[in-house]
Amino acid sequence: MSRRDPEIILRQMLDHANEAVEMARGRKRDHLDTDRMFSLAVTHLVEIIGEAAGRMPVEIREKWPRIQWAGIVGMRNRLIHGYDIIDLDIVWRVVTSELPLLIGELEKILSNKIL
Hints:
Blueprint: H1 6-24, H2 31-34, H3 36-55, H4 58-63, H5 69-81, H6 88-112
Helix pairs in contact: 1-3, 1-6, 3-5, 3-6
């Protein structure tokens, strides 16, 4: 299997999204300001999700339009290239609101084996 295998990419996205959501469980937004390791960890997990999404073949992206592929990749690009001006409010919203929705979509795709 290759780095471009859609199932591997989806599983990577799912694993990292679950990890970020689990890290945030029981925490508050201000922990991103006060716990540097937490902030770096969840930011990096969001970057990895975006990197994986960017490797997803176009035909698979088109098949699953409910997943905001361009937005996920765009978030990765903003975090990587604008690392000195990261808006932690956006990171928090992504981790606590958007990743749980993404997890649901990824689980649906992977459980149905409908790639």
